[in-house]
Amino acid sequence: MTVSVTLTVNGKAASASVDPRMLLVHLLRDQLQLTGTHVGCDTAQCGACTIHLNGRAVKACSMLAVQANGANVTTIEGLTGKGDKMHPMQEAFRDCHGLQCGFCTPGMVMSACQLLADNPKPTEAEIRAGLEGNICRCTGYHNIVKAVQQAAAQA
Amino acid sequence: MYAFEYQNPSTAAAAIGSAKGDARFLAGGQSLVQAMKLRLSQTGTLVDLSGIAELKGISVAGSNVIIGAMTRHSEVARSAEVKQAIPALADLAGGIGDQMVRNQGTLGGSIANADPAACYPAAILGLGATIKASVGQKERAITGDSFFTGLFETTLAPGELITSVEFPVPDCAAYVKFKQPASRFALVGVFVAKFGSTVRVAVTGAKSSVFRATDIEAALSKSFTPEAAAAVKVSANGMNGDMHGSAEYRAAMVSVMAGRAVARALG
Amino acid sequence: MTDMSMSPMNQMGKPILRREDQRFLTGNGQYTDDIHLQRETAGVFLRSPHAHARIKSIKLEAAQKSPGVIAIFTGQDLADAKVNGLPCGWLINNKDGTPMKEPAHPCLAQGKVRHVGDQVALIVAETQWQARDAAELIEVDYEVLTAVVDTAGANSATTLVHDDVPGNLCYDWGHGDKAATEAAFAKAAHVTKLSFVNNRLIPNAMEPRAAIASYTKHDDSYTLHVANQNPHVERLLMCAFVLGLPESKVRVIAPDVGGGFGSKIFLYAEDVALVWASKRVGRPIKWTAERSESFLTDAHGRDHVSTAEMAMDANGKFLALRVSTTANMGAYLSTFASAVPTILYATLLAGQYATPAIYVEVKAVFTNTAPVDAYRGAGRPEATYLVERIVEQCAREMKIDPVEIRRRNFIKTFPYATPVGLTYDVGDYDATLTKVLKLADVAGYPARKAASAKNGKLRGLGYSCYIEACGIAPSNIAGALGARAGLFEAGEVRVHPTGTVTIFTGSHSHGQGHETTFAQVVASKLGIPIENVEIVHGDTGRVLFGMGTYGSRSLAVGGTAIVKAVDKVIAKGKKIAAHLLEAADTDIVFENGEFKVAGTDKKVPFAQVSLTAYVPHNYPLDKLEPGLNENAFYDPANFTFPAGSYVCEVEVDPATGVTEVCAFSAVDDFGNIVNPMIVEGQVHGGIAQGLGQALLESCIYDKETGQLLTGSYMDYAMPRADDLPSFKVDNCVTPCSHNPLGVKGCGEAGAIGAPPALINAITDALGVRDLEMPATRERVWRAAQARA
Ligand SMILES: Cc1cc2nc3c(=O)[nH]c(=O)nc-3n(C[C@H](O)[C@H](O)[C@H](O)COP(=O)(O)OP(=O)(O)OC[C@H]3O[C@@H](n4cnc5c(N)ncnc54)[C@H](O)[C@@H]3O)c2cc1C
Ligand code: FES
Ligand code: FES
After folding, report:
1. Are C576 and C504 contained in the same domain?
2. Which CATH number fits the domain that encloses residue A111?
3. Fewest CB atoms less than 10 Å from the CB: which of B30, B127, C571, C649?
4. How far is the CA of C18 from the centre of ligand 1 (A)?
5. Which is the closest atom of ligand 3 to the Cα of C511?
């Protein structure tokens, strides 16, 4: 049995016919070829799959594709503007060396954007607490925190 | 994940009507989708509650804060009404999981799930909340004290839908969560609330289900001070013990966190 | 070597932003699971639910009939096809000279399963779901056996993990001068003794392991896309030892890889089974580990149980160190497992100190747990932990300041031959220590401690002065020590006609930023813009050869191979330029991207020389081949010896046992630094993993059943942003004396140096002798309670 889902992904209409058990992250990765959203765990803890659903950060591994029916989804690919111009948060991650292997990065950036949307001028402690749902094994978080601080200062 | 049939009704009545046999309600999915993904949970029909407007929202009526079952943790955390009436509740919701979990997870899902380490159950007992639920044509009000019956168990009947929860507004209250370092659920979470001369102290994370720490309540009714709470030696009997903390350690942390909660409640 | 310091194109030592970042930041990275091949099928492994069991029967019928199933393979199929087990890359000999035990390591279980997660069958189906559904229909009849779990008890356990390995003993190895050590102990004024558990860890690179194997009929060849740190080694081991295929028929591609930390060095059973099965099914097979599979089957790290004794004279001068260690190998020998607690461990026990005599014994044991192998630091963190903990304890017992006892015992003249077989070429340990004391504001510590005490908190300060051996390794030394592979590196410089350059390197980047650092080196040497340099790695079909990335060797060994190849390009370019400029070869100098006749203004730019090489109309064809493409293999003359001094400051809440890491300061000596931004990033990441080991992380198996209790992020505590402080990082430089870049390697330092600094700080705060890692809140709380 399949169900059809229609949603807006990165500003474009998308529709697919899916098995109800398909996770949103797999719809994005496997059917829509948006492989920037990653899967790093199976217990909803690493945050590598973070996307924005109707403007709020959620874990795409923890919801069914059908739950996103009618929704507006932004993935890391959609954060980049026209002509490959990166979002200030993406720029800040590059400027501050906030990524190494890059695997946690898309989720981390999407999560960091939510953090600043809710709290535009966070303290270091608030940034660290706000990113607790995103695990990075490479950077030790030091430069990620710096990147979020830079993005906050520029906004 | 095992295959299932998906439904997304737009009214509570329709949702209850769909909940037949082994059907499950899907709220934020933060617990249920996890369990299904790991093939720990299986269902024939999944009834998605996210399209039901009447299950969402926050209102204040008299000395109660009423929160719809499908209200997300982040909505409660950011709600001006909740922050005004019961700041401890907004605080608790703002400390559940991480920001992504809070954007999806719901009050109804959390208490229906009855995870022994979940935060909301502490507020249900700590504030003496009332849970509104419906099954078939019947609607009932369940007292917080009788709602949780064991490990992942509640008094809810099969197919019974939580519609909202009423939280009485206390004089003052606070929730202190001592996180399990890996999952970041509560290793021990203590909710303290003062209503006139009555003090309620609810503890989550420490036993197979949330419970009221009556010894601490008694001590605090005499003297509502951090020292009074921290001085109570809580018995380790029946406490959970695992690699994140022995029963003895959890018991000790109950007193420490209760003391800190009182300090915070007194602001 | 040409002098590059003057060139405007000189990029050395600059914090150039990473060239790889744009693709990662915009979601355009390409990791193995992002790749889809035509007609791809899904592979799923059925894994053992038991730690130790005999397989009585496997019934496949129901599963085979399940929808979408293409094929199911078991150990019997591999045995019938004469597919060998996995090899171990390093032979260790026992004290008596006999070789270590190398029990069979089948790619799919044969007869027995030996750890939870051991692979029993490979199911290939049209979709993941179908493969999983089918996996549940396979009926395996197990006779459950007693599990051997405990490291310390494995040798005396009555149950054998492998029937042909008595006492579960892989080897019993000794190193150093036993007699000299005993003699020194006999005349010691004081002996300090400590016992240690170096806790078992799960590496947890954020990208789970993944592989896609495909077979092409028309040329009878295989391609394996795999999340791996060293594709050539993977291919070599798989072809030569397991499948018996010529390397020319197998291409291994390691595309973008989401972190490794050692866990992706090894040849894994899944990779082999998939490659072999891809020919059987005639279609590509893709497998991506679920995180819970990674927990069960990625090679784990550490897991040592040790005792150490330090003999001192009356002034706290170290006379001798005696160490006895039991190391857990897990159920099977993983690729480099045997070398980790021996070659990479025992040889580092001198630390930064001139201890004249050292003797160490290591027993390696098999248990019913996942294989244990190299994890960030590999052996060196275990050595450093032991040395730096006991040195701190020596200071406490001798009532000497911990800084002073270190200074008193530092090695001060170089080269220095240690009693455990290494020769440190350069270093200045006093310099890093002096600098870190400032960085950490140790002078202001008493005031901070008093302030903590006022708030009912216990403050502590801990030091760690680590050394590591990197740039692994001189092949002849490694060979003499039992390595079954060479440990050089290869590089190729392909200059294109227009003067742009492609570099092919055998090193692999999975976060280290080679595409930036290596390009900085080449652009600087050739005097060309960095944009004109492309770095290619991770593909045996494109890169000539390679030994891969581990042991902080990429720049020191891989970078040097590239430098050597660039030097050959310049040498040939000089000959071409000499012809063009009508001068003698010997009169040509290469500066700022131009070949010049020395002492004149006659010159040709690099791009004109390259064009001439490919359009050889005016060219000395009688003496010189056309083209400009050079390769080099570099085998290092010695290890490199990064070293540094760390200071950790903690505040402990005695009521809860919560330890806050208030400050962490690190001063490292990595020799010359090509990109300080990247180096600092490596240090941060290493420190985070080191603090993770010491404070949070622990792989725990149930002692009875051998079930993994920390099998997900629900129970395995990964360091998160709010567990850590920002770090203070600085460096000192003593250039490595034996590679042209003067570099030593920086990838593992933090993970090596941080754990003892943290535990020294907590034990200082609590005033206790010892505390087991990880310093969980309950352990700290108990210690604080006992003290009160
Ligand atoms: C990474 C992570 C961290 C977390 N940390 C915490 C934490 O620190 N503290 C904490 O308290 N929780 C935590 N949670 C759990 C989180 O709060 C969940 O959101 C919650 O437990 C379940 O809510 P849900 O809306 O997602 O429900 P679902 O997962 O959709 O449903 C859970 C169960 O409730 C049933 N159900 C849902 N709604 C209703 C209803 N209205 N009536 C009857 N039955 C219903 C479902 O059928 C299901 O059985 C965490 C979760 C994750 C993934
Ligand atoms: S994949 Fe780990 S949280 Fe979604
Ligand atoms: S950059 Fe590798 S996990 Fe974060």
Report:
1. yes
2. 1.10.150.120
3. C571
4. 41
5. 2
